[in-house]
């Protein structure tokens, strides 16, 4: 079964149960904190 793109899906349980793509970006938080930049842009698609 092919995975689908989660367009307008915001429920995590639905993402996992209904075979949508999911990318865990948790490690990016650690990286951003370690860099200690003056400014950080965190954009999310709509």
3D structure, described in words:
The chain is mostly helical and 46 residues long. It is built from two helices and no strands. The protein has helices at 12-17, 26-35. The chain is elongated.
* Global shape: elongated
DSSP strand tally = 0
Beginning-to-end CA distance, first to last residue: 26 Å
Radius of gyration: 14 Å
**Which range does the strand content fall in?**
under 5%
Helix/strand/pairing class, anyone? mainly alpha
Mean pLDDT: 86
Features:
single chain; 46 residues; 2 helices
How are the SSEs ordered, and which strands pair?
Layout: H1 12-17, H2 26-35
Brief summary:
The protein has 46 residues and is mainly alpha-helical. It has helices at 12-17, 26-35.
